[in-house]
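User: I'm preparing a small set of examples for a lab meeting where we compare how different chains pack in three dimensions. I only have the primary sequence for this one, and I'd like the structure in token form so I can line it up with the others. Please keep the answer compact; I'll paste it straight into my notes.
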Amino acid sequence: MFRPSSRVRAGVVLVALFVAFPSRVSLASGDEPVRLTFPDLAPASPQERFSRRLQALNGRRVRLTGYMAQSEQPLEGAFFLCPLPTFLDEGGAGTGDLPPDSVRVTVPALARRPVPFAARLVEVTGRLDLGYREEPDGQVSWVRLTVDAVGGVAGSPAP
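Assistant: Understood. Below is the structure token output for the 159-residue chain.
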């Protein structure tokens, strides 16, 4: 009998949540997402907060692939997407363990529920938003994606 691993189950749960809430997940018609990569997030100089590419994509639909940061205490309706697998120890550094190029991803369909962790590459498509914002959970974010689609990347287990 085939029994999926916990990694597979976590990825399936995440994708299933978006299938279960189709009325809350809206894809903007005719607004093709632009591929964004983590190197695109790095500003050209220390005087810039955001790279020119990132500034040019502010407010547009983008697609970004990375790893969900694993938290001891998952956020409700949000998670952090990072270029490498990352574990957040809230008892110690909290979000201080996040790489500087991490992106806060908001999942409106799960506004009051934790987003299930997926231990593999995840592709996120949504609206990019830049600038200082205090989040409802008290954290501050500078780069955000409001999700309209999430999926696992085939054949990409976490290292």
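A couple of notes for your slides: The longest helix spans residues 6-20. The chain has two helices and eight strands.

User: Perfect, thanks.
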